Amino acid sequence: MTKLDLLVMAASAVSSVSLCWLVFAVLTDGVGWLLFWIVAYFVFLAIYFVASYDRVGWLGAVDRVVTVAVSSAMVIVLIPLVWLVSYIIIKGLPALRPSFFVHDQRGVTPTMPATAGGGLHAIVGTIEQVGLALLWSLPLGAATAFFLNESRSKLRRPVRIFVDAMSGMPSIVSGLFIYATLIIPLAKDNSLFSFNGFMASLALSMTMMPTTCRAIEVVLRLVPNGLREAGLALGASRAKVVLSVVLPTASTGVATAAILGIAREAGETAPLLFTAFGYNLMNANPFHGPQESLPLFIYRFVRTQSTADIQRGYAGALVLLILILSLFIVARIIGRDRSVANKRPIRLPSRSSTPETAEPKLISSTSGRSGAIRAAGGP
Amino acid sequence: MTNLNLNPPEVSMNHRAIADDNKIADASAKEKGEAAAADGQKAAQTLIGGPPPGAATLEAREACAWFGEHLVLEGVNLTMVAGEVTALIGPSGCGKSTFLRLLNRMHELVPGSAMAGDILLDGDDIYGASMRAQIIRTRIGMVFQKPNPFPAMSVRQNVLAGLKLTKIRCSDQDALVEQSLQRAGLWREVRERLDSPGGALSGGQQQRLCIARSLAVAPNVLLMDEPCSALDPSSTRRIEETIKELRNEVTVVIVTHNMQQAQRVSDKCAFFLAAENQPGQLVEQGPTTRIFSSPEDLRTADYVGGKFG
């Protein structure tokens, strides 16, 4: 792209805005700002096309216009994301102090400033509930994934349909299910089945299980069939092949799938409403008594009238965002080629003192098949 | 290779000392010298729970194979003599690979597949009621067309994978790794990086690693399904040398599309052919030299003469 190209593009933009201004502001009563920019954008594309056509002909003009359209589509997609994140940061950062991570809301009244008190009870609750949910759903999800991918049962088809259907289930329904089947009938006899973190973890695991199951299944499907055959040809049983060949090969992918599942569940609010119920003070025991979590913390405070409380809610949202973002980063790091990154550099031993950081690039270029299977994408 | 004694427990040498010898030996020693050292070492290993020692004769009687309703192989009678290399040749889709997979019960892993006839390993039917497929597959190893080392394991772990997967035990794993890699002709190239991932080797090295992995459990028969088709000429040559060195220690059955390769490595040759919409059949078998010099069947003559296929 030369200077002249840029100049043509800028000139097209200026002329399209001027034209729209002439039409909408001077000649007619005008339109809203959003419609103005939408129309201006398409007029710009048209003018840019005509100007380019004059310079470089049909093919070049089409190429330029499509390039501009695709790049601007990317920008449009990025706008809401950047907007959302920056909005939360701007609203939440002023109320976020280190004390947020060490205090609960004991003794805090709505009239006190937003920096008073903290959200430790919510952070602890989120970690405990999601951790327990992972404890229930990961073994089940992994077992189901192995059943779907490694067994030869006739039941695989119905199970797969069932898992798919479950992954589409609204999360509030899972909370309602736990509430209706466990809490209502059993709570009066046994405090384990009243509002607490354990019930919340059950509700969360109901939505988490299908997600992790499908993620792990995708990872297992990426394990080449040749490896299974190689294991079987060595005289291993099918179960042994799954445990010793397929699982290690897919382990980084399984870890990534689990972490993406955690990140998704950490933000769930609906299943917690009538299971964990929420509690303004610290309750570190997930098996007894109502428990707070970050989504409930946000929900509690953002609804109120007090400015300080609303700010507290935004601080909670920021912490949740940071938590999920760091989980994604962890997933990315684990999802990287661990089998290569952790091994000794493949060079002569005399040169093994070379810094590790320089090595993975060298090795990965020579190792076509060494890559352990990774989970692609995320929620 | 004149050493016929594979795994006799009574001939237990001190391999540790030999390993030390190797270290002392000049790094630029001639290949022959190292091969001799390897010969001495081969007697050192004792596997517990592995296959009985020595090469075994494999015999197919009226072997037939189906995929679903589709008959792909019909009435094959072929004897693969112990300690010899038998090459299966023929055009694509004539049932060579299917026949090979019949020989170690890999065929039955395909859903909807079926077989008939007998496959005898030293006289015992491997499809007999008392035979377990897993035991059969440790006795009859297999090397595949595409190199498939386990990517999550190091070179060393790859060689020992057969032991880990089948609970065969070994008194000295280091010596077994070295011995297996020596026999596969890979030791000199990888001895400095036994702990690097198996997938980081080149394609030819990966294939030899797979051969070493199959040899580590000391099988009686080694099946090779076009082991060189994905490799460059020099890697192919190394693997052919390996096959020649394995002769007498283990029965080798190799499927190949490369006629020169069949001539170079095999003692016996079997020509398979499938007419259009007909199941594959064994057309002719015999010593390799005779199959290539004076074939009895006209179709064999045409095929080895390059007229079709």
Q: Can you characterise this structure?
A:
The complex is a heterodimer of chains A (379) and B (309). By secondary structure, chain A is an all-alpha fold. In chain A, 69% of the residues lie in helices and 0% in strands. The two termini of chain A are 36 Å apart. Chain B contains 12 helices and 12 strands. With 309 residues, chain B is an alpha/beta fold. Chain B has helices at residues 15-24, 31-42, 96-103, 133-139, 155-166, 173-183, 187-190, 203-216, 233-246, 259-265, 288-293, 298-304; strands spanning 47-48, 58-67, 70-80, 85-89, 113-121, 124-125, 140-143, 169-170, 221-225, 251-255, 268-273, 281-287. In chain B, a hairpin with a 2-residue loop joins strand 2 (58-67) and strand 3 (70-80). Chains A and B meet through helix 7 and helix 8 of A and helix 4, helix 5 and helix 8 of B.
Number of helices of chain A: 13
Compute the number of helices of chain B. 12
Spans of at least 5 consecutive residues with low confidence of chain B? 1-44
* N- and C-termini, Cα separation of chain B: 35 Å
Question: What attributes does this structure have?
Answer:
heterodimer; A: 379 residues; mainly alpha; 69% helix; 0% strand; flat; disordered C terminus; B: 309 residues; alpha/beta; 6-stranded mixed β-sheet; 4-stranded antiparallel β-sheet; 12 helices; 12 strands; 36% helix; 22% strand; globular; disordered N terminus
Q: Topology, please?
A:
The complex is a heterodimer of chains A (379) and B (309).
Chain A: H1 3-27, H2 33-92, H3 120-150, H4 156-167, H5 171-186, H6 197-221, H7 225-233, H8 238-266, H9 270-273, H10 294-302, H11 307-335, H12 338-341, H13 359-366
Helix pairs in contact in A: 1-2, 2-11, 3-4, 3-6, 3-8, 3-10, 4-6, 5-6, 6-8, 7-8, 8-11, 10-11
Chain B: H1 15-24, H2 31-42, E1 47-48, E2 58-67, E3 70-80, E4 85-89, H3 96-103, E5 113-121, E6 124-125, H4 133-139, E7 140-143, H5 155-166, E8 169-170, H6 173-183, H7 187-190, H8 203-216, E9 221-225, H9 233-246, E10 251-255, H10 259-265, E11 268-273, E12 281-287, H11 288-293, H12 298-304
Parallel strand pairs in B: 4-10, 4-11, 7-9, 9-10
Antiparallel strand pairs in B: 1-8, 2-3, 2-5, 5-6, 11-12
Helix pairs in contact in B: 2-6, 5-8, 6-8, 8-9
